[in-house]
Design brief:
mainly alpha, 114 residues
Length: 114
Amino acid sequence: QAQQLNDDQTQELRDIVAWRLMGTDVTDEQARWRDDAVMRSNSVSLVERRVRMALGTGDRRGLNTWLARLPMDAKEKDEWRYWQADMLLERGREDEAKEILHSLMQQRGFYPMA
């Protein structure tokens, strides 16, 4: 008798496979499947990994998509605030970007120094 997986178990398996497909050595079809799985996922670490992948490949459009997919508490991390400011500067929204960058400069760490 075949075992039936519930929705959470199915998504957990998707997350595992998507994690393994986070390289550049995947087919277009695998990349589409991976991105769909990440889009449906509630795993912050998986979405953050996808953001880093977009950064690593210079995919600015993807960077915007995946940053937007992060939950609000994750978006508050210095790392993602910095990249949000970078995206705002690219769009000519200097006041908003400078506000984020100024608040980052008030703290210690890598991104305040960047």
